[in-house]
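Reviewers asked in the last cycle whether our approach scales beyond single polypeptides. To address this, we selected a multi-component target totalling 706 residues and predicted its structure end to end. The input consisted of the following lines:
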Amino acid sequence: MVSIAAFAIISLAGFGFFAWNMLKIRSNIRLGRDLDRSDNSGERWKTMTLVALGQKKMFTRPIPALLHFAIYAAFVITQIELIEIVVDGLSGSHRVFREALGGFYTFMVSFIEILSLLALVATVIFLSRRNLLKLPRLNMKEMKGWPKMDANLILFMEIVLVCCIFTMNGADEVLYNRGISHAADLGEGSLGFSLSSYLGPFIFGDMNDGTLHTLERIGWWGHIAMVFAFLNYLPYSKHLHILFAFPNTYYSNLEAKGRLTNMESVTTEVKLMMDPTADPFAAPAEGAAEPQRFGAKDATDLTWKNLMDSYSCTECGRCTSSCPANITGKLLSPRKIMMDTRDRIEEIGNNVRKHGKDHDDGKSLLGDYITEEEIWACTSCNACVQECPVNIDPLSIIVDLRRYLVMEESKMPTELTGMLTNIENNGAPWQFSPADRLNWKDEA
Amino acid sequence: MSLHVPTMAEKMAAGESPEILFWVGCSGSFDDRAKKITKALVKILNECKVDFAVLGTEENCTGDPAKRAGNEFTFQMQAMMNIQVLEGYEVKKIVTACPHCFNTLKNEYPELGGSYEVIHHTQLIQELINQGKLALKDGGTFKGKKITFHDPCYLGRANDVYDAPRSLIEKLDAEMVEMKRCKTKGLCCGAGGAQMFKEAEKGNKEINVERTEDALETKADVIATGCPFCNTMMTDGVKNFNKENEIEVLDVAELIANAADL
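The resulting structure, written as structure tokens, was:
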């Protein structure tokens, strides 16, 4: 009875705190500007299925993709066992699905065990390539400190989780062999799981009944405790991608990657400029909305999708490792753009909750987090967008930051001022006369 | 052979409306190297008797570099002026030899009121060959040579056109070799996003040098590309390694015009 109550309280607290944190993230994302991505649901479901569920884009790098898939598959399938744990925890039963599912239960847990072992191997490889092999993309400047710790913590938790599963099943196996497991006796002398039926007797075979019962409980409680710890760690971690990959790919940009958004507010202005009948001194229409800032200076000037992107980033660095600017030693790192955006919107969100909506902390995304040097290094080549396994678009943030600099502050590299002046004066980015445009026709 | 290059104005005066507008672009009009690409394409169009015209002095920058530099005002001013001209001539279909013009006309003009069928010149040439309008000579200049293709970002990743230029190179009597970074993984030449018009930020290498290394590794005799900016960047890259006597940088249109003996 005590353990049922304890379980109920832990579950409630675990889910409650998680939900509270997720609502905070949701409200942070809603601080962004509007963007309509409600169209084309068929194509969106398809994209989500292929890219998030099927991990299509991961497989351009097959080895990490396979290792990642092992952890992903183990994680997804283990949820079935987790349902059993919750039912057992709340009802006081033990392996409640075993009697009901029979042979399928044995198959299912066996499958989970094999996937868990593969996940364990993958986790160890991931830890070693991060910390021993020091893979460049996982050890860049922006990964120092908390991001590195974050990644290692997640991998460590995964190891603990898998160890708990095998302790639970292994100890239970020995108990079952001795006829004293709490599992319903189906009379085979073994629980029959693929790995623990060998591992269990091998590791725990010599222990006494009391120790085994304790170990089985440690495995069981450890498993569920880790699950809740993990769940509640997600909102603080880059690991949130396991959830956000789905909405983020659903709301992907479905247009050609080369198309930059059209700025409606500018269209209105330009149409006025080109309209000979327009009154240049006319007062704005009654009730007209206050004009928005051109481009983005702070995270709240970005769209909600940019902000969702930032929460979906798991800092894998595929973007940065394919960025021509980064490859050639420039400051720009698309991953850092995403990490900065997330850190800044978190900060703004906390400020809003503490001090109200109009609080100004005197900081901004551009300047305090991202420098001008970074955004001017971008070639808009879309390699980062192409590479991202969860369809994050760092380029649209870079372009919006440039728009702010150029249109609000007239700040840009001097050569670009010349280029823009040329376009405005003679219709070409270079200083050539428009009258000479067809001269090539008659040149030898 | 003299080039036949009618303008839209001349066509209109004669009461004709051409099937397709050749959008030459600023590079193709003013840059000495890119003008050769323009002429190669015109030779192909003339040979195949394509009913085309250019805007000539009525053409204006699409606004691509302005938009990418963050100046939406300049971009939209350019776009709207161009759209007025294009609408005036009732243009339906546009071909261009510049992936930046291609992308902007195709993807960014419709929202401002200019919707056209826009194709890249490699797609048009592919069509002409498939229709049997253009025959390549056997053997030819490229016999036994290795050719590698550098994907322009605004043709490849930006618009998913990877096959048209490759299918043209495969029609030559030459060996097509891929660089280690190609197609969706192709490395930028360093000129996109208005970088063409400014010095690069501080780093440890120029992007075009990094990319030229990819090309040199293939031991190709020719670096083919489909963008005047990429052409400039790769040509400079080759010069950086003092290899201009060993490896040529050519547009796909030039390769085809050469192979068709035009």
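The domain at 31-51+294-412 of chain A is CATH 1.10.1060 (Fumarate Reductase Iron-sulfur Protein; Chain B, domain 2). We regard this as preliminary and will revisit it once experimental data from Aim 1 are available.
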